[in-house]
Design a protein that fits this description.
Blueprint: E1 2-6, H1 11-22, E2 26-32, H2 43-47, E3 57-59, H3 64-70, E4 76-79, H4 86-91, H5 93-111, E5 117-121, H6 146-165, E6 168-174, E7 177-178, H7 187-196, E8 203-205, E9 211-212, E10 215-216, H8 217-229, E11 237-240, E12 246-247, H9 248-259, E13 265-267, H10 287-293, H11 301-318
Parallel strand pairs: 1-2, 1-4, 2-3, 4-5, 5-6, 6-11, 7-10, 8-13
Antiparallel strand pairs: 9-12
Helix pairs in contact: 1-8, 5-6, 7-9, 7-11, 9-11
C-alpha cells in the first residue's frame, strides 16, 4: 500500500515513517517547506539507509494545489501535519487555524469522492482537564487553548465528511507521547536535558501538580498502523492511551533516579499556562482501540513508563544538544 505521511519530519511523524517502512509500506513522507532545506528528524533514517530521500516531498498542507498533486496514487494518508506548540497558539491563533483546520480541509476535499483512507491525528488536549477518569472517547471536548480548539475543529470536520460524503476517516487521539527526538519544548526532554547540563544548578519547570498519561512513541506508532489495518475503524475516534497517569513531579523523581542526578526545582513562570487554560489532569481509557484493533501499549503502567524513560534518557545522553530539526 502506498501511504502519505504529512508532518513526517516531526517527532512522531519521523518514528511513524520508520515503523511503516519496516512493515513494508511504500511511504511518501511529506515535510513543510523550509529555506534551510533539511529533512528534520528524517535525517537519521536517511543516514541509516532506511529511507530514500528522493521519496520525500516538500510543501504545505495549507496549499490546496500542492495537496492535490501529493495525493495522486496514494491509498492512505496519515495526517500529522500541525502546529502544536500550545504557548505559541496564544500569540498566533490564526496560524493554527490556517495550518490545522484549512490544511485538514484541503486533504478532506481531495479525498471525499475517493476510496482513500485518512487517519487524522487528534490529541488528548481536546478533552481539557478530566471531568471524569479514565477519559473515554465520549468525554466532553473543551478547547482550553487556541491549539486544542483547532484540533477539536479538525476532528469534527473530518467526522462530518465521513457522515456527509462517506469518506473513510479514522481518528487517532494520542495521549502524551514521549521518546527519542522529541522537541526540547516538551516536558520530558526539558527535564532530562536540564539534569544533564552540568552548568545548571536547578531545574526550571511550570506546574508540577498536573498529571499526564504518557505513551512511548513506539506504542503511538503501532496504534496508527493498527487503525489502518482494521476494517472496523471507519468513522471511529480512538484513544491511544496507557491507562496510567503520573504527575510532573513524579516524572522528575523517576528521571533523577534513572540518571542518578538530583537537582532542586524552580518554577518557571514562562512555562505556566494561563490559569483557565491549564489542563490539570489527563488519564485515558484505551479499551475501545484494544477491543477493535487488538492494540495495547507495550510500555503501559508504571513499569512500562520507566522502561520508556530509560530508552529516552539514553538517547539524550548521547545527543545532549538537540538537533534543532523539529519541522511540523
Amino acid at each position: 500500500m502506498k501511504v502519505l505521511v504529512t508532518g513526517a519530519g516531526g517527532f512522531i511523524g519521523s518514528h511513524l515513517v520508520a515503523e511503516l517502512v519496516k512493515k513494508g509500506f511504500d511511504v511518501i513522507p511529506m515535510i513543510k517547506y523550509s529555506s534551510k532545506v533539511n529533512y528534520g528528524n528524517l535525517e537519521e533514517s536517511i543516514k541509516l539507509g532506511n529511507l530514500d530521500k528522493n521519496k520525500i516531498i516538500i510543501g504545505d498542507i495549507s496549499d490546496r494545489s500542492f495537496i492535490k498533486e501529493a495525493l495522486i496514487d496514494v491509498e492512505a494518508i496519515f495526517n500529522l501535519a500541525a502546529l502544536i506548540g500550545i504557548p505559541y497558539s496564544y500569540k498566533s491563533p490564526g496560524s493554527y487555524v490556517n495550518t490545522n483546520i484549512i490544511g485538514t480541509m484541503n486533504i478532506l476535499e481531495e479525498i471525499k469522492s475517493t476510496k482513500k483512507i485518512l487517519i487524522q491525528t487528534s490529541t488528548s488536549e481536546v478533552y481539557g482537564s478530566a471531568q471524569y477518569i479514565p477519559i473515554d472517547e465520549s468525554h466532553p471536548k473543551v478547547g482550553q487553548s487556541p491549539y486544542s480548539a483547532t484540533k477539536i475543529a479538525c476532528d469534527e470536520l473530518a467526522l462530518s465528511y465521513e457522515k456527509s460524503f462517506d469518506t473513510d476517516v479514522r481518528i487517532l487521539r494520542p495521549f502524551n507521547t514521549y521518546g527519542p527526538r522529541q522537541s526540547q519544548r516538551a516536558v520530558i526532554p526539558t527535564i532530562i536535558n536540564q539534569l544533564l547540563d552540568d552548568k545548571r544548578e536547578y531545574i526550571e519547570l511550570g506546574s508540577l501538580e498536573t498529571t499526564r498519561d504518557f505513551n512511548y512513541v513506539e506504542d503511538t506508532c503501532r496504534a496508527f498502523s493498527s487503525i489502518l489495518a482494521s476494517n472496523k475503524c471507519k468513522g471511529k475516534v480512538l484513544n491511544s492511551a496507557s491507562n496510567f497517569e503520573v504527575s510532573i513531579n513524579q516524572v522528575v523523581i523517576i528521571i533523577q533516579e534513572i540518571l542518578g542526578i538530583n537537582k532542586p526545582i524552580k518554577q518557571d513562570n514562562n512555562r505556566l499556562r494561563p490559569k483557565a487554560s491549564e489542563v490539570e489532569r489527563l488519564f485515558g481509557d484505551n479499551s475501545l482501540i484494544k477491543s477493535i484493533t487488538g492494540w495495547q501499549p507495550e510500555y503501559g503502567g508504571l513499569d512500562g513508563f520507566k522502561r520508556g524513560l530509560e530508552k529516552t534518557v539514553e538517547f539524550y545522553k548521547s545527543n545532549k544538544e538537540p538537533s534543532g530539526y523539529y519541522i511540523i
